[in-house]
Protein 1
Amino acid sequence: MTPWRKFWMLSVISLLGLGLGWALGSNSDHDERGEGKIVTSARSPTRTSTRIHSNSASSPHRYAELLRRYRDRGNVSPELARYIAKCSGDQLEALIINPGVDEGLSFAGYPLAAQVRETVAAEMFRRRGLACLDWITDSISDAVAITLAREVAKTNPDFAIQKLKGMGRYVGIVPNMIQSAVINRAAMRSAPELIELLKDNKFSVQAVTNFAPDFNFTEYINDMNGAGKVTNSAWKFLAAKDPDQTRSLLIEGLGGSSGNGFSAAVEGMAIINGETEAAKWYVSMLDEIPETTRKESLRMLALSDASPRLEAVFNGLQSEQDRAEFGANLLNNYRTKTEWLLDESVEVRGKIIEHWMKNTMARTKGPLNAKELINTMDKLNFPEESREKLLSLLPPTSN
Amino acid sequence: MRIPLGCFLAAILIGFLGSRFFKDTSPVDDSVSPERRERKANRDRRTLQQQMEDSVAQARLAGKFDPFSGEWADWTEEELKSALEEGLKDPAVVLDGKEQRLVRMLFRAWCDKNLENAIAWWETTPSEFMQVRLSGVIGAAWPEDRGMEGLEFACAHSEQFFGYGSVASGQIMQKGLQQAVAGGVNEVASALKMLRESGLDSRYTMPVKFPDGFDFVALADTDEGRRVIESESCFFGGEWMKQDREAAFQSLVLDRSSFMKVFQLFNDRPLQNYGDTTTEEVERAGWVAQKLSKNSILSTPGVASNGALSMKGRPSMLAAYTEGFEDTVVRTIVAEDILRNSSSSGEMVISYLNQLKDPEWRISLLENTDSIVLTMSEKQLRENLSNWGASTEKIETIIKRYALTLRP
């Protein structure tokens, strides 16, 4: 073969290869679901980064994979996510200002426009980095500014906070959504980081919904000592994750183990295991905690707005004294349905009313109003013929 | 042979990498002239708009919005069940509203495949909290043509459709009531009785449509119809108003002796729907205000302001409603309440004020209304005040008044 022919042959082969390679590269992020292979691309948070053929994965694995993709992709359809990833900068700006979708359309209360806006914000941050906040001006609405700043706050909290404060926006107040992003980020890192953040900043209370797998709850609760929405979140999460450890810490009296702590822990336990199991779990601790903590926990639990929880705890309580105490506390919960108390015997309802009288007089440090007592007896549908005995317990000055 | 093969493979690699590189940078191509970029951007915007609309239309059609909707066909029921059980054990998923959506999507996918099996599993879920959270999905997936059956199901599981701070019965009630409407007045009354006896409240239904000529008077005259009207939760008030305003107003407002709630007259679509307002709705708002004005008992600031709450987020309706009140004191109190309720959004305040006919009154309201927290840019406020004809002195007074919350 002459060198000239050899050159031409190699050129043709190279061109063919180049074309083939280009075609492969262009199509590599199209949905290849069902083709039995894993495709990885970490370039864009809005792109599907890993896909696994359905039949090649076991269910727990499929779930874990699904969850990871759900967290990565920003809640919009694959088509829309791909489109957003390909938008020009101008288009992204236009889209984040006006997602162009019906705010009323939602999936269980989460507006679609917000999902689109979040995905666009993630894409703007991916491309522009911290400079994406420079684009925020007076004409940009608060909702857009906050979404973008929250995206930044997930990785650069201090910058996002200072940038917004520096702009004089929100009069120096850190918006709740930014606070929430910052607090949740710290909780996903470590207990010392969360402690430091909360001690250094005057944040209004925010709930935390996720903690790092190795988060040291003992250190956090011990250091923060007492109530607070984040501390309650910690008890709730820990009880949902590890009821046995939570039980030990509550009995030990960690961080003062206030009534709030018990109440939050029962809530967390119930959300995973159901109200009856949670009530049994709580009742099993009562003989192992001091009397004041026991009373305080019964008081806080009675304030719950979950009627099934109140019923399960009431039915689960073993001692007559505890049932009367809890029942009396329930009479002060005006928000939650407690009609099931009416099914209790006259004797039990009488004891609840007696307890309520004692608590009320102790709290007000004075005599009880007879009218108030009658209202309470009415509330519990207490029979007329049994009322005299309770009315006779009133001090002579009552009217 | 080795050389040609090597060249071929190298070229494939170069081509692949090249395409990836150019693809990622192509959206922002500075080498293209600004005009061409603009033309391309306009073209792409239209495509984008079309994509968005298609996406929304699909979501509306399916009654859901689910980024994995194209994938569920590959999942078996057993896999969905197993994934759901994994999800319900994970505190991070169960405790976070946004993450919970994934569990709801999985459950919806199962409901779409086999509603009976999905429900049988749902009934055995230990967490009452998650049962309530998932019951709304059952309502969304329930077939329209089995609406009454759905209503019976919801009534039999009333505790799982209401509680833990959420009302999940809206869609399943709507499907049942919608089917009952097709059967006439007596069927609607029976459905309402069933709801009442089970403890579910018809006020939380998603809007139900009524055919033209539906006998609302007869419905209002049934025991159950009277009950919902007396409890001021008349779910058919908005539809009745659309068909026969005088009769609806007479029955829902004038025939009632106690304080009434105006929102019943506008409940023909969800309260949180910020979509376009129809001309009929704007006109209805003005009409209601005029009717209230003519009644000495009802023409009170309390009743009037309560009505404005049902139009929150819809400035043109709010303006028509405000201006419909003849009494200037009532009108001003309504406008001030609307401003106070909208003030978290400066855009909403300006949008509402711009709909009021008298520019001087707009300025006066901003000058005199107490307790407004006006969060908007100073520049934007200045521009609007100037457009309304405010004097320089007045503009400065108003700017000073809101200085603490205005953005510089």
Protein 2
Amino acid sequence: MRFAGSVGAILALLAAAETAAGGSLREQVLRDQAIKAGLVPVEEVMPSFRQALSGAGRLLFASKELSLTREISCQSCHLDSFGSSDGIPVGVGTRGQGEGLDRLQHGGDFLPRRTSPLWGRGALGFDTFFWDGQVDGSGNSVMSAFGDAAPSSDPLVVVAHLPPVEIREMVRDDEDAEALRTETVDSARKVYAIIEERVRSDDALSAALTRAYGFDREDIRYIHVAESIASFIRDRFRLQPTKFHDFVFRDGDLNKQELAGGILFYGRGRCAACHNGPFFSDLSFHAIPFGQLGRGKNGFGIDYGRYNVTRDPADLYKFRTPPLYNVIKTAPYSHSGAAIDLAGAIRAHVDPLGAAQVGGMSAAERAEFYRRLGSWAGEPIFGVELDDQDIRDLAAFVSALAFPDLQAAPITNATSRTE
Amino acid sequence: MRAALRPSSLLIVPLIFLAGIVVGQTTPPLWKSALIATFQTGYQEATYRCDRAMRNHLVAKEQVYRSPGKDTVVALRAAEVALLDCQDYDMLRKRLILWGLDENDLSLMALQAIEAKDRDLQQVVEIHEIRR
């Protein structure tokens, strides 16, 4: 019996030695692949911003004066406690109350898509915004709903123009907003004029803006509001080095599971085909057949994604690759928030049938699902095989893309570059 | 009393010798069986993973050859990283040889791996058919 026990112990030791082998090769491969896939030290994408504008932007970000009915601010849906998102599948705009599940349960005007986190959105090179890329600064000019009349050449400033004029987001969908319901540039200008007047009348907001710009409060225009909010986003939500950055650029350590997940991420899992570059996103558009919660942008539980912007049938069901910073903090996942945890989100990339409740679908839902699967069939990740252990390893790896102390991200600090 | 013990004492040496033979003859097979039992599942998985990585790498190389471009090159790079699975397979194989298994034992484990992963007779035929 003792002999058998000894043999067992020896075998267990041998097995453990076997699984521990090859670590250094894997570490080197992972470092090389991360750099080849475009990862750079965060300092290289650190944006310029004016700290005085950031200070004004912080006040404006939290101010409900930006919504016509004074009921919602940017901060209502971009919360620290949910990794700068809101923790619920789709956003709740006007008429919403509370945070997280409370907001969901209270109800209000539901938005068609998930609230995006803001980390890295102001970084150098981050030029494509929203799930469908409706603001795109990747070309020579900023493409947006403003057409040729984009209010700024800075796409993030253009982004800061949109939520206050978006029906159900910061404008109520009711008779009072009838004149604004067209969501045209002209109706947007009317909203901006109202907000400008409110900001001029608010002592704290106007003082912050006049101090930042060095002009009188009568000179305040919405562009100054938007520039300030953009500066605040660049400052408050800027990237910080993660455990993986330390591993790649400072010879830091990853644990065994994170290392295995990293090798999968850049290898067999083919995640880095889309989740690449400084933001773990190619800022391009791909079709992953997540479930569709809510009514969807196109109604009846349908969301055509990028197609709504380009009208190109090749873009049907495609959404911008989401960056992965702090992804562990930003559940639920996907444009519709259909994946409640990281494992579910990863599984949906490779095994949508495993996640879908196909049996309970109507004929229309099934047809819609098949169309999404058809678009997915052209994606790099199509046909990738991941078992449960692989998915756990990948989840461990992407968890290493979190900032060490998310809550402690400073509002401003001396290390940030200023104009 | 002493006379009664004497024959037993005389037997001790041959008994030890015999026990040595028995232990010497039985331990290697037992050790091998224990090794095989311990590593069979892991070896099966490693065999499958390496096979999968090689197949995917071959397809990725063909894709680059047929339609060279950024996407196919990125896919090939990912397939190359995935070949680490074959490094794992080779390392495990070498270790098992070092620890006492021979090529026959490993071939048996590989065949069991194929049977475990593949229920298709075709693969068995491909392994065993005589090729001209």
Protein 3
Amino acid sequence: MQLSDGVARMGQVVFNAPGLSELKALGLGSCIGLCAFDPVTKIGCIAHIVLPQARSADTPEPIKYADTAIPHMIEEMSRRGAIKTRLKTAIVGGAQLFNFEAPNGALDVGKRNIEAVKRLLSKANLRLVAEEVGGNMGRTVILNTQTGEVLIRQAGTPDRKLATLLS
Amino acid sequence: MVIEMDSSIKTSVALSSFLNAAKAGVNKAAEAVRTMSASAVRLDVISAGVAPTARLSEIAGNAEDLVAGVYIQVTGDIPGHALLVFPYESALNLVDMLLGNHKGTTTRIDTMEQSVIQEVGNIVTSSYLNALSDFYGCSLLPSPPSVAVDMAAAVIDSVLLNTGHFDDDTISIATRFAGRKHALRGFFLYIPELPIQVAHYTNTK
């Protein structure tokens, strides 16, 4: 689904389009912002992933879950003309803002999201070029598809560059 | 006031009784805020009933707005999750009020300010839980409060995801409160874990 404002809300993915080269996922807490970019065609996206695993593979919201988001994202990028082997990815998020115990002593969702996304990127043979994950602060991630730059914004600090997803 | 209910549970006694209890709780919590801030506080229930948990992520306002959030996990007969959120400015004003400072004295939230906000979370949530436990005659135990000062969306998603029920419908009650005198604004969200099970149970019987 293409959103005119370039903001990927929970469970959504945004792609660049004519006149839209700045993609964002705002205020990620335990969620993950997955940026993917083909530096040759300059086709890019940000997926706002919420949970590690979907209850069923045919979920109506494939981007919401890491296990369905990554194949779906690759397919959509390819359909737009990106070449899978050229894709470079960066991940941001997976924080735990509050200091509390997860139910049943399980790992917190942020950590589980990070692990799932990394495992699935590797399984899909996608290159993870940069990451800023974990910790206890929320983050906004911005992908500029003209420059391939990935920026991070945190509360009370100026934007800073995480990486440039060029070859 | 907006009441939204899943039609399959609409007739559930459990749901309506929870909402009654929750509203009594909200009034108690508002009373606590009134006493603390020594000012009139206006309350609006912005959503109450059964809705997808994910939908609650929108109630805090702009994703990147700086807020102070207090999260308290509740265990006992009706486990649940309580979240009290103040816009940053309101949090600063609140600290000034409680420490007896002139408005504008507090300009940042450090350890000491955090513990003041924690205490507010404790008082508001305990008032709420007392009303709920009186109503149900059950025991509800709040965890120590945890404070985060961060972007609104990050604060909300952290709590919603950690309820472990993000994919489900949840019963929740969200209340916005506003004090006239001191520019105090905020909202209180409570997500109980048991009543929806009771509601489903009652419904399928």
Protein 4
Amino acid sequence: MRASELLGRTVYAPDGTAIGVISDLLCAAGEDGLPRVRSAIVAPRHHTRLLGYDRPGIQGPWLIEKLAGWLQRGVREIPWPEVRLDP
Amino acid sequence: MTDQPEPLRLDFHLLDRQIVDVDGRMVGNVDDVELDVDRGGTPRVVALLVGQAVLGRRIGGLVGRWLEASARRLSPDPDPAPIRIPYDLVMSVGSEIELRVKASALGEPPLETWLRKHFVDRIPGADHAGE
């Protein structure tokens, strides 16, 4: 499987309604040192790059930060075991 | 063990990031990432993929198809394989991705193969360029 097959995929709620699309995948190093996906960043609209401003502690010029905040409104992190890729 | 951000963001930290070898020589950009799904259904990163055809498939659409087609045209192989860099060879992930090995250990990109075959090898004296 390739990352591009997951990024942009629609994520569904247990009742089958679409929540949004996978915008990024957060990984943590496993015992073997290889990064394992632990959660998905799901955006309510189309797949878009989040400019990095969704990371905690990242600050930038006020205008850019506000613009990034507006672009990524409704973005949420969903633990990987709860990510449903089929309705 | 790879020196990497915690958490590692697959799209933000890996995709399209520049890769350099152990000597700082440019290898290419991360065009896609190969994942392997374990028994529990969790994907893990096993390799970085570099190649025009990989990028074309990732982008999709008209531009993506053109990139894939031109990659096939430039490669002697009708289905060109990407340069596959096992993640074990990644030393660190930062503003660029540094490898533990030399670029020469990873194979030649199709564009360089095509240029060597069609241009460089035809230059008079190219067969004893090292002398």
